[in-house]
Amino acid sequence: QVKVVESGGGLVQAGGSLRLSCAASGIIFSISDVGWYRQAPGQQRELVATITRAGNTDYGDSVKGRFTISRDNAKNTVDLQMNSLKSEDTAVYYCNVRGRIFTKEYMYWGQGTQVTVSS
Q: How far is CA 116 from CA 9, 15, 16, 43, 80, in A?
């Protein structure tokens, strides 16, 4: 059974930092691409950051220079370090794990973790 679990959310003041963690089990994590997405109330889910199985990273324009994504394949985790947080970063943050084994593609989402930034 595949499980994707996010942790590390919470309430922080503007300008502060939080570190989110995504842990996956039941899949071959090292061959998976992983992304963090977020969804604020009344808005569409948007890309925050992604990291490929090769370690290549990409960021949404609104978080470039403030957020850093990293992975530890030995622990099956991907972290999102969020610095200089703004009120507009308030959202539920979701982890997405996807990949392909031979011809079969897979994609899994976690349940999300709430991040609230107070101004």
A: 8, 12, 11, 15, 15
Alpha carbons 42 and 93: distance in angstroms, whole number: 14
Q: pLDDT band for 35, please (50, 70, 90 cuts).
A: very high
Measured distance CA(98)–CA(106) in Å, rounded: 5
d(CA 12, CA 68): 18
- How far apart are alpha carbons 87 and 26 in whole angstroms? 35
Q: How large is the average pLDDT for residues 55-62?
A: 98
Sheet holding 77-82, edge to edge: 3-7, 18-25, 77-82, 67-72
Residue with the two structure tokens 């990291």: 51
Contact of 48 with 34, CB cutoff 8 Å: no
Structure tokens at 76: 């099956």
Instruction: Take residue 55 and report the two structure tokens written for it.
Output: 């370690």
Do 103 and 39 touch, CB atoms closer than 8 A? Answer: no
